[in-house]
Q: What sequence folds into this?
């Protein structure tokens, strides 16, 4: 049976691992000790759009994995953890498994490609939320796209078929970048704004001043991506326009960055909007809205960290 390692079995990794568990031999690695233990002992419970309990082993560090080779390794840790997990997994890369990233943010595929293994890069509109040890909520059923960043379509078509069989609709693309750019711009705009409105999704769509900010940021991000030679397979703001016009209902999920702030975690701002700001500076493109929003999210991270620090909790 196909062996798949899922690195980061949180919101999205949890959905992928639990769904795949009936179709492949899945192993998880997750540094959240209580979560990993719960999964190994009682299984991972998916709630919401998918309801199932999947059983697979989950370790807390790559050093606990047995030497048997994996056919694919799926990276679903936050972008800031990718370099460290790759280093930890060095002993499992000699067999050249397919490395797949569906992470938001720039920089991950480049790190994976440096290993020399085939790399599938993609994006997913699936949404999830970590609830508690052993529990993940599947919030939105969404499409997934993957394609070669390093290697050929043949190296990864089988994995797309596996995701489809497991109930995660996936399209394989000859060149995934136009889709990656489209979703990247959506995340660069909507994720920080979702965090700044404290996860109250209606505020992203119904407050005129917030809508104007969203549109300005979208313009800035698209200008930078085009200056970098990128293009878009779909209008990054298409979903936003559909929600605004009432063509699709307002989802409850305000993006994963709002969830990070609610948990007092660091966000992926540096790999998203902050990345745009750095590129814009290099290219001489003014991006005042993205710059301000990036700064505000840094402040929000600081405040959320302070609010969740054990010292604050005990003195409260
Ligand atoms: N949530 C969503 O709806 C979506 C998320 N994404 C993207 O998917 C990626 C994962 O996000 P998400 O699932 O939300 O994140 P989560 O924080 O829910 O899950 C990541 C998991 O990885 C664990 N982890 C952190 N560092 C390591 C490490 N060094 N080794 C092993 N495990 C580690 C975390 O543990 P701990 O909590 O203890 O740090 C956590 O359990 C991100 O790039 C995100 O942008 C894409 C689409 C939608
Ligand atoms: C699922 C989606 C597209 C929703 O914004 C996302 O990428 C996120 O939450 O980070």
A:
């Amino acid at each position: 049976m196909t062996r798949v390692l899922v690195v980061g079995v949180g919101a999205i990794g949890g959905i992928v691992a639990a769904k795949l568990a009936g179709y492949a031999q899945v192993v998880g690695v997750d540094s959240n000790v209580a979560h990993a233990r719960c999964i190994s002992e009682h299984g991972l419970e998916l709630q919401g759009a998918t309801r199932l309990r999947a059983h697979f082993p989950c370790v807390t560090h790559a050093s606990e994995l047995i030497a048997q080779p994996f056919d694919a390794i799926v990276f679903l840790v936050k972008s800031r953890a990718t370099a460290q997990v790759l280093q930890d997994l060095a002993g499992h890369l000699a067999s050249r498994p397919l490395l797949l990233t569906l992470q938001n943010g720039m920089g991950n595929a480049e790190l994976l490609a440096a290993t020399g293994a085939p790399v599938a890069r993609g994006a997913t509109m699936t949404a999830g939320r970590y609830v508690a040890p052993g529990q993940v909520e599947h919030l939105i059923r969404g499409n997934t796209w993957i394609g070669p960043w390093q290697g050929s379509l043949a190296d990864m078509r089988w994995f797309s078929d596996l995701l489809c069989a497991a109930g995660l609709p996936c399209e394989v693309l000859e060149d995934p970048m136009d889709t990656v750019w489209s979703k990247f711009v959506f995340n660069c705009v909507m994720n920080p704004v979702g965090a700044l409105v404290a996860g109250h999704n209606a505020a992203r769509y119904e407050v005129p001043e917030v809508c104007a900010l969203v549109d300005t940021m979208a313009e800035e991000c698209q200008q930078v991506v085009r200056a970098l030679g990128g293009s878009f397979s779909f209008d990054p703001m298409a979903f936003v326009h559909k929600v605004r016009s009432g063509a699709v209902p307002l989802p409850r999920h305000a993006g994963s960055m709002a969830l990070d702030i609610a948990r007092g975690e660091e966000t992926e701002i540096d790999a998203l909007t902050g990345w745009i700001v750095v590129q814009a500076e290099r290219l001489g493109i003014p991006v005042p809205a993205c710059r301000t929003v990036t700064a505000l999210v840094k402040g929000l991270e600081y405040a959320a960290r302070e609010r969740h620090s054990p010292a604050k909790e005990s003195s409260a």
Observations:
- Residues 3-175 form a domain with the Rossmann fold fold (CATH 3.40.50.720).
- Residues 104, 125, 127, 140, 187, 190-191, 253, 255-256 surround ketopantoate (ligand 2) (CB under 6 Å).
- The first strand starts at residue 3 and ends at 7.
